[in-house]
Amino acid sequence: MNKTISYVPLYQQVKKDILKRIVAGDWSPGSFLPNEFVLAEQYGVSQGTLRKALNELTAEKYLVRYQGKGTAVAVVEDDTYLFPFFFLSRRDNKHIPPVSQINSIAKIKATKEIAFRLQIDENDDVLEIKRVRILDNESVINETVYISLKITGDIAFENNQLPNTLYVHYQHKCGIRIHRVTEDIEAVMPDADDVKKLNIHKNHPLMKVCRTSFDVQERIVEYRISKINTQNYIYHASLK
To answer: Which of 40, 106, 203, 225 is deepest in the core (most CB within 10 A)?
Structure first.
């Protein structure tokens, strides 16, 4: 019987461990890592191997390289962190930062469906956020977000105000960084709530996007359902 042997390049092993240490808080956002010589010695690898790991983490925006100063953990800002995961743009390809209009924020018990989506137990605590996202003064997205409190802890929002992107809030308040997302996309007809919130006709089709968001430890942080009026917008994703 043939066995498949999985080989992970040494620089990838170093990269994974550095990322783990960032998540664990060994190096906080804005702090500098030890210099390359010291880090290479700690990991028992060549500086070339270490540099390859650092270069990938820099390209993925986890680190920032400063000429003559060293390498620091990136500080997440709204704009830099929003657009890698926000694929909606005007038909002239211009990105418009969304503004959130909050309808409700409530702690609920996970239904069977939501528990399955978040990979938690039924009746576990979940934060449910219902909001409309506005672009260019137009209500474009009717959205419900379910956050796994098992992962984030008991997070709260001052005066029920959400940041421009929840992913920034996870980073700053919970030390959680969203690493990747998966999406299921389909065309649907609006329900009564969509018609009201998006100010559309009942026969106006919408794009439904169900997104699951994972942190760097591959834990599911949130599941969101977005109903999108794409009349004046396109959904543009770049795949590598």
So the answer is: 40
Please return the burial class of 175, using the count of CB atoms within 10 Å of its CB with bins 0-12, 13-18 and 19+.
Answer: middle
Gap between the Cα atoms of 81 and 224, Å rounded? 18
DSSP string across 9-62: -HHHHHHHHHHHHHHHTSS-TTPBPPPHHHHHHHHT--HHHHHHHHHHHHHTTS
Q: Is 25 left (phi over 0), alpha (psi -120 to 50) or beta?
A: left
| Each residue's pLDDT tens digit, 92-110 | 877 777 888 889 999 999 9
Angle at 129 between CA 126 and CA 131, to 5 degrees: 165
Average pLDDT over residues 145-172: 82
Q: What's the pLDDT at 44? A: 94
Nearest CA-CA partner of 67 in 56, 76, 75, 58 = 58
Element (H, E) at 186: strand 178-188
Give the C-alpha separation, 126 to 61, whole Å. 29
Can you list the alpha helix ranges (DSSP code H) found in the chain?
10-24, 36-43, 47-59, 78-82, 112-118, 149-152, 166-169, 192-198
Give the residue among 210, 200, 206, 203 at the shortest CA–CA distance from 138.
Answer: 200
Q: Convert the pLDDT of each residue in 219-240 to its tens digit.
A: 999 999 999 999 999 887 776 5
- Is the pLDDT at 166 greater than 80? The verdict is yes
